[in-house]
Amino acid sequence: MERILGARKRIALVAHDHKKDELLHWVMTNKEKLADHRLFATGTTGTLLEQALQLPIQKLLSGPLGGDQQIGAMIAEDKLDILIFFWDPMEAQPHDPDVKALLRLSATYNLPVACNAATADFMFAAPFMTEEYKALQTDYSMYLKRKLPEGGGDL
């Protein structure tokens, strides 16, 4: 199976509080490249970036208030192509389980993820950023067809 990422990517921009300045610096450096794509961001980060970039950003809820889950749902529903998530590895977050789930979904759906400026720079330097890309997808049909225990289920 494969998923087609168009030439105009749908990019989510997320940053923990102590990484917002770093993300802001990175997006300002890459403003021209970002202008060619559709941008999404969680609450506070989205407002900050939209003011600095003067580009439209579809803002979701704040991360701890559900924005991380909204991004996760967008990944699962094939509504995002790239996640740029500058997360703070040195500080525990009240929504750490949400962060882990977001990274797990990105891996599950083979979504490109940059967790720091260096990785984002490499990603944006790749020719695939401005071209169509066919991302291979794992076939989970056997998982979905597995036999569930009696009286059990996903609850």
From TrEMBL:
Enzyme class: lyase
Record bears the keyword Lyase: yes
Recorded superkingdom: Bacteria
Catalysed reactions, semicolon-separated: dihydroxyacetone phosphate = methylglyoxal + phosphate
Domain MGS-like residues, every copy: 1-155
Pfam families assigned: MGS
PROSITE patterns hit by this protein: METHYLGLYOXAL_SYNTH, MGS
Protein's UniProt keywords contain Lyase: yes
Function comment: Catalyzes the formation of methylglyoxal from dihydroxyacetone phosphate.
Family statement drawn from the similarity comment of this UniProt entry: Belongs to the methylglyoxal synthase family.
Protein name: Methylglyoxal synthase
Naturally occurring in which organism (per UniProt): Niabella drilacis (strain DSM 25811 / CCM 8410 / CCUG 62505 / LMG 26954 / E90)
Lineage: Bacteria, Pseudomonadati, Bacteroidota, Chitinophagia, Chitinophagales
